[in-house]
Amino acid sequence: MSLFADLLSTVFERRYRGATEPDRKGRSIEELCADLISNAGEVSGTELARLILDRYAAMEWEEKRAFFAYLTTSQGIDTAATRTALDTYEAGPNKASYRALMDLVEPPRQELARRLNQVPGATGQLVEMRADLLRMTDKNPEFAMLDLDLRHLFASWFNRGFLVLRPISWETPAEILEKIIVYEAVHAIHSWDDLRRRLQPEDRRCFAFFHPSMPSEPLIFVEVALTKGISTSIQDLLADGRAPMAARAADTAVFYSISNCQAGLAGISFGNSLIKQVVADLSRELPGLKTFVTLSPIPGLTRWLEKEGRPLPGDPTAQRQLSAHYLTNAKRPDGGPVDPVARFHLGNGARVHAVHAGADTSANGLRQSGGVMVNYLYDLAQITQNHERFATAGTVAASPEVRALASAVSLQDA
Amino acid sequence: MSLFADLLSTVFERRYRGATEPDRKGRSIEELCADLISNAGEVSGTELARLILDRYAAMEWEEKRAFFAYLTTSQGIDTAATRTALDTYEAGPNKASYRALMDLVEPPRQELARRLNQVPGATGQLVEMRADLLRMTDKNPEFAMLDLDLRHLFASWFNRGFLVLRPISWETPAEILEKIIVYEAVHAIHSWDDLRRRLQPEDRRCFAFFHPSMPSEPLIFVEVALTKGISTSIQDLLADGRAPMAARAADTAVFYSISNCQAGLAGISFGNSLIKQVVADLSRELPGLKTFVTLSPIPGLTRWLEKEGRPLPGDPTAQRQLSAHYLTNAKRPDGGPVDPVARFHLGNGARVHAVHAGADTSANGLRQSGGVMVNYLYDLAQITQNHERFATAGTVAASPEVRALASAVSLQDA
Amino acid sequence: MSLFADLLSTVFERRYRGATEPDRKGRSIEELCADLISNAGEVSGTELARLILDRYAAMEWEEKRAFFAYLTTSQGIDTAATRTALDTYEAGPNKASYRALMDLVEPPRQELARRLNQVPGATGQLVEMRADLLRMTDKNPEFAMLDLDLRHLFASWFNRGFLVLRPISWETPAEILEKIIVYEAVHAIHSWDDLRRRLQPEDRRCFAFFHPSMPSEPLIFVEVALTKGISTSIQDLLADGRAPMAARAADTAVFYSISNCQAGLAGISFGNSLIKQVVADLSRELPGLKTFVTLSPIPGLTRWLEKEGRPLPGDPTAQRQLSAHYLTNAKRPDGGPVDPVARFHLGNGARVHAVHAGADTSANGLRQSGGVMVNYLYDLAQITQNHERFATAGTVAASPEVRALASAVSLQDA
Amino acid sequence: MSLFADLLSTVFERRYRGATEPDRKGRSIEELCADLISNAGEVSGTELARLILDRYAAMEWEEKRAFFAYLTTSQGIDTAATRTALDTYEAGPNKASYRALMDLVEPPRQELARRLNQVPGATGQLVEMRADLLRMTDKNPEFAMLDLDLRHLFASWFNRGFLVLRPISWETPAEILEKIIVYEAVHAIHSWDDLRRRLQPEDRRCFAFFHPSMPSEPLIFVEVALTKGISTSIQDLLADGRAPMAARAADTAVFYSISNCQAGLAGISFGNSLIKQVVADLSRELPGLKTFVTLSPIPGLTRWLEKEGRPLPGDPTAQRQLSAHYLTNAKRPDGGPVDPVARFHLGNGARVHAVHAGADTSANGLRQSGGVMVNYLYDLAQITQNHERFATAGTVAASPEVRALASAVSLQDA
């Protein structure tokens, strides 16, 4: 009935908007925003909000820039008033002084965003708006403040407690599947047949987080292969024509691709929750699964070696030694691992489990890491401890095997 | 599968918690909260959050009071640091200074609440927590600050854009229906049969707002009677044994009961959105509906008359004149109507449409208003204008008939 | 949207029926049936079918009797034509002769019922029609032929492969729950609270078969208690205020009530499939369940004892001996057990597992069996063998304990 | 959870089958069928049925032929016994004699098919079985009798009252969409992009009938274009890059493709019901739709002209005249139209509304009808009358315009 509903809704709204629209046609988006914020009640809020979102959607790039500039400069906090309120509150912290302070320390643009979000479907449009904003922050660094406000709001709205995990399968609506094709960021999906190979066999799974207000927009998804033993080659995993195995015969789940979908949700982390939830769900479904690992790229390896003036050797063992060394010892000034994927999984409490030469023979795989890939292991009994050591002391958890490989390089260097 | 899922989930969590629980058993809820806030990553956040919520759920009243006291005093804002950050920001407003300021002006207890909300089902528990808190604010007025923080968060989480309108019917799960019985606040539902009379006939409707994270908890609901002409007696509307009419023959929808369900969401207004949405949906479904009115109590009438030293006369016409006068002219010091139900509907843009003597002959109806009830009219073409005049100038919209009744009293008084 | 759909559907149909109705108003239901059958195509079939069903629904009892008489006499098979077709077929069995024969051996009233069933919702109405018919067969034994035809059709339509098993819980729509209250045939449900006690605790379950075309009408349902050990008292099982146990701590599932819901589906057996399916589903959900038993009434005990001129003794051991004897040895002329509940469960492959005195102290329980109840055990490893021995040789499967009890009586008698 | 369910179900069944399988391994499918039929009870029926279906699924072509031969010869009716029963019934028609007769006139293979259908998922497998059978009837005409039995059963199981109409859209599971691609029989769908063009734009619709027991298998589907005025070219309708129109601006719904999906349901007609239902649903959704027409091929035109020794002229007007003549006047010996598509739509009560030259310029379109296509009009006010005249007198309903075109040929011929 959705099209029908849409139609009627339009008819209804036209009738309903009748009284209010004429007055607003001549007003600028900035004036409309001021109306929306100032309007004490909420009676015409939805109409106003819809009008603003429609206006925004029709804007050219430079108009959007001007709109963001307006939000940055005119909808920020009033420092003088805030200071006074802070003094009053400090002198006598009570309901009234606290409320006055709280009203001032939050910039009006946050309330504006909340009021825009009254409109059904607005959440996705606001996420899009932030994606636009982020594309401009290089040129307009002052927009970073507005961005912090949106990010703050979105972190609250997209709180883990509000997200829904859904399996993505060959029974999923095409509308969502085509987005999976587009959003896949690690190993490109080349066609619907390629997609089907990752979804339909009983030893392949995919899961995504959704938000109830954006039901056909995945936020992040992970692709999983169920295997006997740990995979050491992404090409083998994705091979066309391979024979699927019975899911219940698998002992290992390999997370071979994790993709964030929404540019407008940058900086809001879902990956750790997603992996833990999928580990939990697969454990329930398939008690035979004993090992949960990734098969991950090492995107920074070649670049780092170049910086170190050290070419990647051709010998697979030497490749593995250098990779192990890089993953466990190469650190940024802030003490974190150089490799971004390592940072993510180690931060989640995983450990560096094994490295494999010749594991990704695609052009991209060879370019970024000479074809070497790595398994990060998610061991539920160790995950908290690993995470805490990593978070507090920067300790990188690694298997004895990986340690041994890495120490070969250290000894050599010494 | 839900029970099964629960079971397995418990098994799984026991396995999973194994490593972490022992260390935490000895820690107080305050220490756990500090852990949860300080924990930079989110790896063990869910476990911690669940532990805190479980502890809270098992607390006695005085333990809860102590916990709220802790949140009030130890998780508030740091005014000295905030003032410094404010100075820095004012001197150079940029990403770093803004972020530093924003981090300080939000009390840590807000982030604590967001982290607690990671746990599936936590949203409802946090709403319950605020309900507990509100029961204590009389005795502990300092808790009002904590309450403002929760209310601020909840206003964001329960934003109109996240709510879902669902019809409540005889096909609704019993689990939800029994809550409707409990939550009905205007005209008590005495039994399942009484409930059925309000849901099953085709000329009776009920709608509720739900939040996706609390799928079996209505937030607010409205009961509607479809009628020919405007009802003038609640007893007639609810009479057992009355003959239902065909829904498509109705020309009027009477909103005869609106009940908020969640004490913990006090101060977050859904009523206006609910009525407007229901008007919209019913308009679509039944194009024959031309009039949308309430049949509302006048809860403050008797009390006000007493204060005025004016007994309610026995004569129906005189009763109606005094009621019209009270609804349109009796004001609070702040300029708003004395009557709380009038404040609500006039604030929504409705107008006082008609008053009826003998309309509620129940004990409660006679006590609060001598049996007089009132229709507020929701006319979509007038609603915005009414609302704006009411919000800005305190103008009470009323029908000519009601005006005439009211002026009879004014003349008399003059 | 269902009401809306209904409304529009009515509008649409009025428009649509326009052309056809006038001609049909004057026609009798018999003429309409003849039209429906004769109509080679199906174009106006739905309209005609609806008209016939509407007419039927509005009939008085005697009109229905006349209608059934018409179907019995005028819509039966043509024996002369059948004999000719049989000869032709026997002389040359081929497509044409077989089709001709098949067309004749099926009475037209079967095709009539299929055509009536084109109308959405008709299946339930046809089931109701048979319920009416069955109420008349005592007085009109000739209707048994029409009944055989309906039963034949229904056995095909309500084939196990078309049924859907659904849990009945406190989350089930009230509309269905109120039918559970009405249809419960073994231990009456006295109120919604009583119902809740059988559905909501985690150690209580209920399951029903539904047909997709009658989605709010249960066909048969079973109530289950999860327990530690085998229950020996129905009053204990149903006690108000008892403390529920954790479902996963249970080792036994007790089927304490099975009720057929549709009088019009008499003679079409669902019970065996239902029990087997529920045993399978519960086994999956709760692997701790090791024992699946009923706690069943012995409805024929007192009556049989009276016939035997043997009063039920007061001593519990003697009661149990006589009950064991009755269940295992008392046979009908056709070799089947006298007790109808025993016939059902033994026919399903269950065995008589234990008998308990004082197990049903309700007025009804005392009247029918002096309060004695019986457990029938469903042991999946034995079920087929038990069933086959019972079906072929009339052998009653029983536990050694029950055998011993029974033999005490035999010895005594001998 | 389906895979999980499968897994557990298998585990469970292994446990359960334990007792029964050994005995059956050595038995032939014919013996198993005899067991299934003879087994008075239903206890082990499901297991037996599953075993038979599994055996069948693993058979080679010639084994299937042997199995059908067995069903044809050994599971047919017993004519001698039937004659005796017929005599008995004729002599005394009562419940016993009628039941005996009915039991004999239905060949045992019908009951066999019903018992096979106990297994979840069996319905689809039985439909497949009939598809196999139909592929053999040319070589084995004696199988036509078995086919008549299956068709008779399926007509009952796939009764209109049991079917569910579902829209097929871009939100439909990929699993179903890929079947739409495969089953499209009129204008081939070349890719997922081509499919999307027929589903996603708001002026394109698709609807299919499903049976609840085969939820991912469409039975028949129709593709619809919403247009302003009646389409005269299929290539225009399906053009890539065309601009969609607003659905509510359309005044016409064009049914441009209807495809049956299940070879095993041949001879069971859904098309008429589907079209009528879709007309009804679209009328409700889009009250602006005034005209419901097909844009149909004329598959028999070229062939008929060849037989008539009359080449299709190049002149569009002459083409249209001949097409109109063919559609309205070319009859088979039985009086029905020569053209199969014409037979279908005229049989449904549609009329020949307009013919268009150059309407299908595809290779196939040019070959079968020189590119001419036809609109059949579904006018709800005329449909019953048209159908009845067609069914009784063979009258072809046509628009005055088509009549005029056709009469040009008749005059010419005369």
From TrEMBL, chains A, B, C, D:
InterPro entries, A to Z: Malonyl_CoA_deC, Malonyl_CoA_deC_C, Malonyl_CoA_deC_C_sf, MCD_N, MCD_N_sf
GO biological process: fatty acid biosynthetic process
Domain Malonyl-CoA decarboxylase N-terminal, first and last residues per copy: 77-158
Annotated GO MF terms: malonyl-CoA decarboxylase activity
Domain Malonyl-CoA decarboxylase C-terminal: 161-308, 320-379
Name under which the protein is recorded: Malonyl-CoA decarboxylase
